[in-house]
Amino acid sequence: MNKPMNNVSRVLQVAVMLLAIILLAMTVAQATLAEGQTVLIVYGDEDAGNTENLHADWASMIGSAGTLEELQFSGYQKTMDVVAGNNPLDFFMIENRDCIADFIEKGLVSAFEPTRMMLDDIAAMPAFVQNAIRDNLMTEDGRLYGFPNNINSRESLYYTDAWTDSPFRDMSPPSSFEELLDFVEIYLETPHDGFCFYYDRLGHANVTWFVHMLMEYHTLQCRHAGYEPVFNDPDFISMAERTRDLFGRLFAIEKDTKHQKGHQLFTDCYAGIATNGLDTFTQDNLIPWRIKSDQPPLFPVSIQIYCVRNGSEFVDQAPAFFECIVTHRKDPLSDGNINYASYTLVHPDWVDMKAFRTDKAKMFGEKWVFTCATQEYLDSVWRLDQHAVPALEYEICWDSSIKGAHNEAYAAVDDFVNGKESAEQFSIRLDRLVSEMPGS
User: Fold this and answer.
1) Fewer beta carbons within 10 angstroms: which end of the chain, N or C?
2) SS3 (DSSP) at 28
3) Under DSSP, is residue 159 helix (H, G, I), strand (E, B) or coil?
């Protein structure tokens, strides 16, 4: 009677063993599939404009064989840590505020051969931008370390066309920060009815603003020359004192729009946006970012580029993926977005400025149309290379990834402008901020 029960027991044991073997085989098969699956990990900026459609194309290029994962973060050190970490990115977006040169020098990005589509896209850009790409992103044999998604300028200072009718018309307009200070001295002692120094409809120009300008010009020149800025220097200290004193006198007189009468002689602008809309200006009117006139006439640009990590399995496929950037470059222009700033340097001929100005008037009222560039400004971008040299520094004096660094920098300027610190104390404080930046 026991034998049949033993046979049944053996059958059950065999069945359990077979089931275990089958389950193990299925697990191994699933693990093998997962290991063989292609995963494209991308860091992109959700505010970049056309990344959503761009990344969708990349996902379709991988197909059913893999997946696309996106990460969102910011800051130089965070980007560097992730790219160099144990779970590195394949494609990632960086800007010159993230120190593109550092990623190249550390061997974290792979150079690739650009396609004809990519080369044609670059060739259709203004010469100034082509120079920036060639000098900073291209190897001697024509390979690229990354492909630009967006290119923007910094807010900069210009003299306006009102200069030709002003009492100062026989003088050459300032072409450096030092010459600007020289002019302020003359301006304060010369009758100028019908003209003002700087008409600021947006209400933000003040002594502090021009001290920051001095800091930024100095920083850009130093970094362009290949070294970090030193502020505790006799020349910078004396220039800072002169800036505070002269602009303090100026803004005591022209302290607000009620006291800023007549046509402005100077304006700041980002992407052609003026501050009052009364007078025209173009890139031909640019005051370069330099302290002295014997320094190179720099103009800062921010190049947002996609790179492929050195060692990624997608290195050979990078050109095909980056061609999608060219395909989708016009996306933000076609979706009704009136922000044209990303195109004023890349492809100014794509911008329908008349349509943008009409849209601005409909959305916000005619009085805000002055915040759009003029067609004359857009046309002048093609001549920018005749007046300026591109400089790929965007983050000035401090790094945004350092907690509180921006606040401390502004506090330092405020204390100096308000007389709480001497120029020397101010310069020492700035040097400490620079020393705390990653890589210093």
Assistant:
1) N
2) helix
3) strand
Q: Which two tokens stand for residue 385?
A: 């290379």
Asked whether residue 95 carries a pLDDT value surpassing 50, the answer given is yes
Q: Please give the DSSP secondary-structure letter assigned to residue 385.
A: G
Q: Is the pLDDT of residue 3 over 50?
A: no
Which residue carries 């980002």 as its tokens? 270
Q: Which residues contact 387 (CB under 8 A, 6 or more apart)?
A: 283, 284, 286, 288, 297, 299
Distance CA 296, CA 67 (A): 47
pLDDT tens readout for residues 156-203: 999 999 999 999 999 999 999 999 999 999 999 999 999 999 876 666
In angstroms, the Cα distances linking 401 to 77, 94, 219, 253 are: 7, 14, 18, 39
pLDDT above 60: residue 284: yes
Distance of CA 92 to the CA centre of its chain: 15
Q: What percent of the chain has pLDDT over 90?
A: 43
CA angle 192, 195, 196 (to 5 degrees): 100
CA dist 172 and 17 (Å) reads 94
Residue 302: burial class (beta carbons within 10 Å; 0-12, 13-18, 19+)? middle
Identity of the amino acid at 129: V
- How far apart, in Å, are the Cα atoms of 81 and each of 44, 403, 407, 438? 16, 17, 25, 12
Please count the residues of the chain: 440
Q: What is the mean pLDDT of the chain?
A: 81
Q: Tell me how far apart the alpha carbons of residues 352 and 320 are, in angstroms, rounded to a whole number.
A: 30
CA distances from 274 to 245, 359, 373 (A): 26, 17, 7
